[in-house]
Amino acid sequence: RLLLCPNRTQTKLSILFLSVVIFEAGRRVVSFVPAPSSTRPFPVGFVRGSDRSKSSVLRLRGSGSMEGQKNTVSGLDAVEWNDRKGLQGKWTNPEKGWKVAVEWKQTPYGVGVFAVEDIPAGTVLRVGRHGMNQLRFRGAEEVEAFCRAGMSGREDDEAAYRSRVGYAKDYLFGFFPDTDERGYAPDVATVPDCVAMWIPGNGLNHNLIPNTVYRPAPGGVEEGINLEALGDVKSGEELVDDYRRHGKAPPWAIEW
What we know:
The chain has helices at about 85-90, 140-150, 155-170, 250-255; strands spanning about 20-25, 25-30, 100-105, 110-115, 125, 135, 175, 195-200, 205, 210-215, 225-230, 240. It is α+β, with helices and mostly antiparallel strands. The strands form four sheets. The chain has a four-stranded mixed sheet with strand order 3-4-12-9, with no helix packed on it. The chain has a three-stranded antiparallel sheet with strand order 5-11-10, with no helix packed on it. Strand 1 and strand 2 (about 25-30) form a beta hairpin. Helix 2 (about 140-150) packs across helix 3 (about 155-170). The chain is globular. Mean pLDDT is about 75; it is low at about 1-60.
């Protein structure tokens, strides 16, 4: 989920890291927008998901196990990227790598993801593995390859391409593997070491006091990125992220 928007009057923005790329009414504006301390900004786009019962979700406390997980990045040509709710419902939560019970609900800031059980601090919420439910990008050509994958000159290819571009624009995120315990790098105004994307996205809205944090997988960031509980989370509480932790957009991402 891409980064910040402090303006309450704009209800739907697409923003890339702290170097913000705003696509609005066909215009693109690049600027650095720090979050105000008194305002919770609107999130970027909307991530919707199907409700799943507690019984349908694996609970592996503090585990990075991939048990029950499916490859969600295969068969990309069969995915309707503009249908964010349908995209979430294409797999069960365990198949997407979730290890706790969560559900997606409407909030004043768009659709958010909520705990459906009490979750202790340090619990692995979702296991992320590159090539399974995450894609890592090292340049614009790799993002472009994702957007063009499986296309063979069909009449509807252009529409499919644009829908993937929109998805990537909304869900690319930056990650610093070396941070403090709360996930903050020494200088978040720098370009992150890793640029990746979850498929499907987590649905984390922005909050200056996050209760989740990204951590490298046990095998390191080359293996993947996990989502963990930063503190104890009560059932019914929204899972949130501080978008400032994702750093500054790489030049290639802004150009793309």
